[in-house]
Amino acid sequence: MTTKRYDVAAEFSQKAFLCSPHETGVIEPFLGIRYDALRLAGKNEEALVAAKQLYNVCSPQNTSDAIMRVSAALRAARPDDKEAVNRFKAEQMNGATTQPYAGKDALTATPPPATQPTVLSTIKIDPKPFEAAINVQFTESYDSLTARGNLFLLSDKPKEAMDFFERAYSVCNDDRLAPATENIARCMRAIDGSIGRSNAWILSLRPAKQEQK
């Protein structure tokens, strides 16, 4: 990045996070580098894809940053669609409420149906770069299940990812309960394209944790 070899930085950053797909803490910063490199290289459509991938995989506390990156990428990639950013931000604000999930099991609940395709749904991701990495993960260990979940999120296949994250949640020990819970929350956000249900899921678990303490 310092020597402005942005294409190389974009390629190597993806290779880096594919080496450790079970570690969200590795994927997120390297994917951020890939986004920055593609943007600086003027590859706006590819940068928009990377921004959506960041939205899918980032930790809940970094959702706001991911939203800002998607907004910036939309401006650059779709200059003729002046309202795309406003629509995207409105969708995020409208989808942030946990009210539709009050008293429901957030894991099995479904978000209110969209009246039209969301802006995020119009950003298409090619899953082929991640197929080989998925195929070498075949055990039922927590790390392998989490790796496949993350790779399916990167492929923009969050419903497939949810199956693996739920299985990882069922086999995790106490030390991994927090990240396993966060995995499901991240997947809900990617499926819904908003944070309301994922926040409801996290909030629903807090009383049980407090009782355990």
The largest β sheet comes out as: none
Question: Which residues sit in consecutive blocks of at least 5 with pLDDT less than 50?
Answer: 208-213
Find the count of extended strands (DSSP E, 2+ residues): 0
Q: Assign an overall shape.
A: globular
Kindly report the average pLDDT value.
92
Strand content: under 5%
Would you list the SSEs in sequence order as H and E? HHHHHHHHHH
Give the end-to-end Cα distance, rounded to a whole number of Å: 46 Å
Task: Tell me the structural class.
Answer: mainly alpha
Global Rg: 17 Å
Please tally the helical runs, counting DSSP H or I stretches of 4 or more residues. Answer: 10
The amount of helix comes to: 55-70%
Q: What does it look like?
A:
It is a single chain. The chain is mainly α and 213 residues long. The protein is 65% helix and 0% strand. The chain has ten helices and no strands. It has helices at 6-19, 24-40, 44-57, 63-77, 84-94, 128-135, 142-154, 158-171, 177-192, 196-212. Helix 8 runs antiparallel to helix 9 (177-192). The radius of gyration is 17 Å and the shape is globular. The termini are far apart. Residues 208-213 have low confidence and may be disordered.
